[in-house]
Design goal:
The structure is a single chain. The chain is mainly α. Helices cover 57% and strands 1% of the residues.
Length: 406
């Protein structure tokens, strides 16, 4: 019996040694991953090779992300106060505006223009969201538009499932590097490349500032009953975690819930609820129909708080050149809504024949609305070739001419 057990043990160690990577290699990988916490461009094997790897969670790389969520549990020890809770709420919406108005509508799509100093300031604001650097964010979003709901789309719920599109995709090693060839319009600015490469600098500075604010209030306004640690938990950990999941709802839910006004090549949808959570990003189907416009809520009844903020900022002269939605795209949307109204009236007639008069009233009212829009925009009946549905978000990555702003 003993020789048999010895043979089994020997075979086990042979198989183990052949299948398990050597310790130095594992150690090098771990050290390399730790370095990436502070230097996002540190990819020993090359970014191109990393993007070819299979999707799987890199747990070491995700430790800071895990700490962010675990930090919310600090509320057990710090408790809550009105000033801390309201600070968390305020920082959620202020930084959501930075995600939507800066990372998305400026760096990803260049829907407005600004000066170089203001561009750097906007990038700093975006860094406080703890959603990586501006070039990484823009690269991945442009890639999403080029391959929306296709196999190459890193966060399509139809391809990868809900949870991977919501949170899993950012844990995969293949999605960590930035493809700078897709953001040539941005990587010509060394200050932006610096913020993108050392993307932990701004979040750490922001966390320290929030802690300092709490400590300052504790010393000079004790009646507010807050402290540095309490403010850090609420203003940074809880607020940032909520911000991340609010933003991620667009990846995971805006292709699953809501209505489709435009027949785009993906399954993007419009959702009022998501528009409120994300300050206007919920009008996702509109955005995928024409992504170059500054506003995502194409019509007045579609609440788009990010656009209102950008419009107000343009009155100061700090930003300019906000891009409008073409008349042809608006007309297309009105006609689509008209057909939906007619279809809804037809369905209502089948369910409630006693209200059959609506079958005549609703289409007539919708027809009047369409005629009004077409009368105001006689050229809108033709779908301009320049406003066709397109996926190539890489057009924004072309390097501007010498006379163009940042």
């Amino acid at each position: 019996m003993q020789p048999c057990r010895a043979c089994t043990k020997r075979v086990f160690w042979i198989v183990y040694s052949l299948t398990k990577p050597p310790m130095p290699q594992r150690l090098r990988h771990t050290l390399s991953t730790v370095i990436q916490w502070f230097d996002a461009d540190h990819v020993p094997g090359g970014a191109a090779a990393a993007r070819l790897e299979e999707d799987k969670v890199d747990w070491v790389r995700c430790i800071p992300f895990i700490i962010l969520h675990l930090g919310c549990l600090g509320v057990i020890w710090t408790g809550a106060s009105p000033v801390a809770v309201w600070t968390a709420v305020a920082l959620y919406f202020l930084r959501m505006a930075a995600v939507t108005g800066v990372y998305h509508r400026y760096f990803s799509h260049k829907t407005y223009s600004t000066s170089r100093p203001m561009q750097f300031f906007l990038a700093l604001c975006g860094g406080t969201t703890v959603q990586r650097g501006p070039l990484w964010w823009a690269y991945h979003h442009r890639h999403h538009h080029q391959h929306s709901d296709e196999a190459e789309d890193a966060h399509s719920p139809h391809v990868h499932g809900f949870w991977w599109s919501h949170i899993g995709w950012i844990t995969s090693r293949r999605n960590f590097p930035t493809d700078y060839s897709k953001v040539r319009d941005l990587d010509r600015y060394p200050e932006l490349v610096f913020l993108n490469r050392f993307d932990a600098v701004v979040p750490l500075a922001f966390a320290l500032a929030v802690f300092g604010l709490g400590s300052l209030l504790q010393a000079h306004a004790p009646g507010l009953h807050t402290s540095g640690w309490q403010m850090l938990v609420w203003g940074f950990f809880i607020s940032t975690t909520a911000l991340f999941h609010g933003t991620s709802c667009i990846n995971s839910m805006a292709h699953l819930m809501g209505k489709r006004r435009y027949k785009t090549e993906d399954d993007s949808r419009n959702s009022f609820i998501l528009a409120i959570i994300t300050l206007g990003e919920g009008w996702h189907n509109n955005h995928h129909r024409y992504m170059s416009a500054t506003r995502n809520g194409f019509f007045w009844w579609e609440v788009d708080i990010t656009y209102y903020l950008l419009k107000g900022l343009s009155w100061t002269g700090l930003i300019w050149g906000l891009k409008a939605v073409p008349a042809s795209v608006l007309s297309e949307g009105v006609q689509a809504d008209h057909h939906e109204s007619v279809a809804a009236a037809g369905r209502a007639h089948l369910v409630h024949p006693e209200y059959s008069s609506l079958k005549r009233i609703v289409p007539a009212a919708a027809a009047i609305a369409v005629a009004t829009v077409n009368a105001a925009h006689p050229s809108a009946m033709r779908r301009a070739g320049g406003h066709e549905i397109h996926r190539d978000a890489g057009a924004a990555s072309q390097v501007p001419g010498p006379n163009d702003g940042p």
